[in-house]
């Protein structure tokens, strides 16, 4: 007979009362109520975090958790890099090429930035740089220079998708293999100022401008894009938890028109509105995953700012039906 111990490797604890601070996934049997219970993620909320050292807008972030998030580039200091340890931001080595509205993906010790607008705003970057946890190194260029594009993946395998190249909204999708870029399947709808999340073989993009404000969402399966349910609130230049799985993605803030504080969660099929940011903002930096998402920089006019907000779930105890 299959038992909880067979599956998990430990027995269910018998407790006379629910534990005061259970961890998500913890299961126990309450001998007083005679009910099996477990701890799950409850409603999420935003809370104030540490402030950036340098006010920023149009930056991009990567990193899997609050403790390992990264912000790179952006106006007004286009080469700045800062890392977050869960409490405070620390300045690190600068990018080689100043840029803003670029793409970024990876983890805090191994990431990629590519594309964006150059210092002075006179051209669109093809430059790509690789982060080793200490410094940036220039590597092979994108095939198509553009800005306000989405980036998804890890240092050895990622995507650069959409954007604007000066005359047209871009549908192009390029795949990074750790060495060079290759054009692969285009988006169904070319757009700029969209947001992306996921990995090179399972990614998500949402929102943007093409030229109107859109809420379109598309999912990448490694070879092609499929349109799924739209955002509830169309917007562009939002923030997104870029290292999240498709079924655990947050999109927050943005221009709708005007700055919005709305936050939406994607479950792999559709979007649900959840708790708002404390402060409406657009061109904010998004990073992290579901329970460790960060929104940093920018204010409600899209200007450079230092404020950071952290997303976290409250734990909830749920009775488990074992009949």
Mean model confidence by pLDDT: 87
User: Could you state the CATH homologous superfamily of the largest domain?
Assistant: Kelch-type beta propeller
Order of helices and strands: HEEEEEEEEEEEEEEEEEEEEEEEEEEEE
Helix content bin = under 10%
CATH class of the largest domain: Mainly Beta
Give the oligomeric state: single chain
Quickly count the helices: 1
- What's the total count of β strands? 28
State the end-to-end CA separation.
Answer: 16 Å
Specify the overall morphology.
globular
- Spans with pLDDT under 50 lasting ≥5 residues? none
CATH architecture of the largest domain: 6 Propeller
Radius of gyration based on Cα positions = 21 Å
Strand order, largest beta sheet: 1-2-3-28-27-26
Secondary-structure map:
Layout: H1 4-8, E1 13-15, E2 27-30, E3 35-48, E4 60-62, E5 69-72, E6 81-84, E7 89-91, E8 99-100, E9 103-107, E10 110-114, E11 117-118, E12 128-131, E13 136-139, E14 150-154, E15 157-161, E16 173-176, E17 181-184, E18 195-199, E19 202-209, E20 213-220, E21 225-228, E22 239-240, E23 249-252, E24 263-266, E25 271-274, E26 285-287, E27 294-296, E28 308-319
Parallel strand pairs: 1-2
Antiparallel strand pairs: 2-3, 3-28, 4-5, 5-6, 6-7, 8-11, 9-10, 10-12, 12-13, 14-15, 15-16, 16-17, 18-19, 19-20, 20-21, 22-23, 23-24, 24-25, 26-27, 27-28
């Amino acid at each position: 007979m299959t038992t909880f111990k067979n599956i998990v490797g430990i027995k269910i604890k018998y407790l006379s009362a629910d534990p005061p601070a259970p961890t998500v996934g913890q299961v126990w049997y309450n001998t007083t109520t005679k009910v099996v219970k477990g701890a799950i993620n409850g409603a999420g909320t935003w809370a104030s975090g540490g402030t950036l050292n340098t006010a920023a807008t149009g930056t991009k972030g990567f990193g899997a958790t609050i403790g390992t998030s990264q912000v790179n580039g952006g106006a007004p200091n286009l080469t700045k890099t800062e890392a977050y340890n869960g409490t405070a931001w620390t300045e690190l080595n600068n990018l080689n090429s100043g840029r803003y509205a670029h793409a970024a993906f990876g983890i805090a010790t191994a990431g990629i930035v590519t594309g964006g607008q150059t210092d002075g705003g006179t051209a669109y970057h093809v430059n790509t740089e690789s982060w080793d946890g200490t410094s940036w190194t220039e590597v092979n260029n994108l095939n198509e220079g553009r800005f306000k594009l989405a980036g998804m993946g890890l240092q050895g395998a990622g995507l650069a998708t959409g954007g604007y190249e000066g005359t047209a909204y871009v549908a192009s999708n390029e795949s990074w293999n750790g060495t060079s870029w290759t054009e692969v399947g285009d988006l169904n709808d070319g757009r700029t100022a969209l947001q992306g999340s996921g990995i090179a073989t399972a990614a998500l993009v949402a929102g943007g401008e093409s030229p109107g404000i859109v809420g379109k969402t598309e999912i990448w399966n490694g070879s092609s894009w499929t349109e799924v349910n739209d955002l509830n609130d169309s917007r562009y230049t939002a923030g997104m938890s870029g290292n999240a799985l498709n079924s655990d993605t947050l999109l927050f803030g943005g221009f709708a028109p005007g700055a919005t504080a709305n936050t939406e969660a994607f479950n792999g099929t559709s979007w649900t509105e959840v708790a708002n940011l404390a402060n409406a903002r657009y061109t904010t930096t998004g990073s992290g995953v579901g329970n460790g998402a960060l929104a940093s920089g920018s204010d409600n006019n899209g200007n450079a700012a230092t404020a950071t907000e952290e997303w976290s779930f409250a734990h909830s105890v749920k009775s488990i039906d074992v009949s």
